[in-house]
Amino acid sequence: MVSTSRTALITGASSGIGAAFARSLAAQGYNLVLVARREAQLKNLADELHRKFNIRARVFPADLSDPAQVKRLETLIAEAGDLEILINNAGFGVPGKFAEIQAERNVEMIQVHVVATVCLCRAALPGMISRGRGSIINVSSVAAFMATPRNATYSATKAYLNVFSEGLQNELKGTGVRVQALCPGLTHTEFHDRPGYEDYKTKIPGFLWMSAEDVVRESLDAIKKNRVICVPGLKNRLIVMILRNRLGAFVVKALAARFRG
Fold it and tell me: What does the pLDDT look like over 141-200, one tens digit per residue?
């Protein structure tokens, strides 16, 4: 008998865009595997979604900067028989000049954004391909389109996710598996509560921000339409258009550098 259950696994699920994905997919009847470092927040979210939607929500505490913990998650994914959606959302930023940031922090960012994403995609794909269906969403950023000062590694890892997702989707044509690089701009999450980002919410106009729920809604709509690069929000799409123009990119970079001091 073919299983009719559907499971989505979400990294960075304890808050922000990850939690918004969890709520949206639970409302659609997906069972969930929720992955993040903060176990208490994961348990609260799992309990909430079970009560509201009567779905199964498994909590998997993990720090994806640790290769051993990524390996544990790879095993879980490879053994899952009904994984339909993988959302690689875990991530963080360390603003500052590259030469002044501890090397370990940049390496951790590459491990979480790039290495963990690659490993988890590789673990998920054989099962998805054999079942003839599945979706992978790699959460990137509009920063992928702009190599700004004080965010060199962050922008580089996000650019990797865009190119990786495009190349992967080209390889997967005809398999029934879809891949997306989701490139949100400024989003109301805990990301900008961290050290180095305190001024963003006070200095950047409110109309440039999106809610996590709106980002998720556009992402899930775009993957149904096989849109590999998804930039949610008209304002963000206009920003990306400007960034892809050489003169426009120069102006935006200059403004960004001035804002960051």
Answer: 999 998 878 899 999 999 999 999 999 999 999 999 999 999 999 888 766 566 555 566
Reduced to 3 states (helix: H, G, I; strand: E, B; else coil), residue 137 is strand
Residues 97-114: pLDDT tens digits? 999 999 999 999 999 999
Q: Choose the catalytic residue: 154, 160, 197, 200.
A: 154
CA atoms in the 13 A half-sphere facing the CB of 162: 18
Residues 67, 60 contacting (CB under 8 angstroms): no
Q: Map residue 135 onto helix, strand or coil.
A: strand
Pairing of strands 31-36, 57-61: parallel
**One-character DSSP codes across 157-200:** HHHHHHHHHHHHHHHTTTTTEEEEEE---SEESGGGGSTT-TTH
The answer to whether 154 is a known catalytic residue is yes
Average per-residue pLDDT for the chain: 90
- Residue 5: pLDDT band (50, 70, 90) is confident
Q: What is the rounded distance in angstroms from the CA atom of residue 9 to the CA atom of residue 124?
A: 10
Count CA atoms closer than 13 A to 166's CA, side-chain side.
9
Give the integer Cα–Cα distance in Å for 222 and 151. 27
CA dihedral 14→215→194→33, nearest 10 degrees, is 20
List beta partners, residue 60.
35
Positive or negative CA dihedral for 140, 142, 143, 144? positive
| Spatial separation of the C-alpha atoms in residues 211 and 236, rounded to whole Å | 13
Give the model confidence (pLDDT) of 49-97 as tens digits.
999 999 999 999 999 999 999 999 999 999 999 999 999 999 999 989 9
3-state helix vs strand vs coil in the chain, percent to 5: 55, 15, 30
For 182, phi and psi rounded to 5 degrees? -90, 125
